[in-house]
Specification:
There is one protein chain. The chain has a domain of 111 residues: Zincin-like (2-Layer Sandwich). Helices cover 62% and strands 7% of the residues. α1 runs antiparallel to α6, α3 crosses α5 and α6 runs antiparallel to α8. It has a three-stranded mixed β-sheet, sandwiched between helices. It is mostly helical and 269 residues long. The structure holds zinc ion.
């Protein structure tokens, strides 16, 4: 009996939890309340800041905060215009710079951003930094973490729903859901699918453009990234990332779309 109920719950969740990603319109499944994702993310972020060295380079701190706040404002305005502000509910934006050789940056659910000092020379300037931060913030706006956790949880529930053992352990499903949500907010597991990476590139391009940064800088940044990393992989940009060539070609393809937002932002300012 419980098996059927579990399966029914799962199907119901899938039916009600399908939403569309802003800008790309891709349908996605996110079953967790954002408040759950955010509370996990906020404590993981706090822990990360407590155990890593923040930079004392005031120039870098100022630049990261400046670009972050501009993109934040652009995102908030875009979401308000599209009647999507509810997707930003509970966000507690924060932008920090960590001392590290890693060529890396990320944004956790709820707007918690870290930029590593190692990526700053590759960014070269403010517009380059906007490419990186736009991409990372896009992961959070697209709720890729929630989607990944949801994929894991539904797969696990579907598996356990078919097992007799579940009937003796009715809390197992809940445990699995919490585990899946927790795993995604662990820093080591911030690896997204190629679909997510590509989507973050496209959305990030638009957000940076809306914040007043020229979309033509994005392919240039990725060319520098390819050169800096010898064409190999770098932390956030692990194996699932599109190749540099694919990514640069896509960013050029999406440029006209982003250019419209860029020109609109220029007129508004
Ligand atoms: Zn990414």
């Amino acid at each position: 009996m419980f098996q059927k109920t579990t399966l029914f719950t799962l199907l119901l969740l899938v039916a009600i939890a399908c939403t569309s990603v802003p800008i790309t319109g891709r349908k996605q499944l996110t079953i967790f309340p954002n408040s759950t994702m955010q509370s996990q993310s906020f404590s993981a972020y706090k822990e990360f800041l407590n155990t890593n060295k923040l930079t004392t380079n005031q120039q870098q701190i100022d630049l990261v905060k400046k670009v972050g706040k501009r993109i934040q404002a652009a995102v908030e305005q875009y979401m308000a215009e599209k009647n999507l502000s509810s997707r930003l509910s509970g966000f507690q934006w924060e932008f920090n710079v960590v001392e590290s050789k890693d060529v890396n940056a990320w944004c956790m659910p709820g707007g918690k951003v870290v930029v590593y000092t190692g990526i700053i020379p590759v960014c070269k300037d403010e517009a380059g930094l906007a490419v990186v931060m736009g991409h990372e913030i896009a992961h959070a706006i697209a709720e890729h973490g929630n989607e990944r956790a949801s994929q894991q949880a539904t797969a696990q529930i579907a598996m356990t729903a078919g097992s007799v053992a579940v009937s003796q352990k009715p809390t197992l499903t809940n445990q699995l859901i919490l585990q899946a949500a927790g795993a995604v907010t662990q820093l080591g597991l911030l690896k997204y699918s190629r679909t997510h990476e590509s989507e973050a590139d496209r959305m990030g391009l638009v957000f940076a453009a809306l914040a007043g940064y020229n979309p033509a800088e994005a392919p240039k940044f990725w060319e520098r990234m390819a050169a800096a990393t010898g064409g190999g992989n770098v932390p956030e940009y692990l194996s699932t990332h599109p190749s540099h060539e694919t990514r640069i070609a896509d960013l050029k393809k999406w440029q006209p779309e982003a250019m419209e937002y860029y020109n609109r932002a220029k007129v508004a300012n």
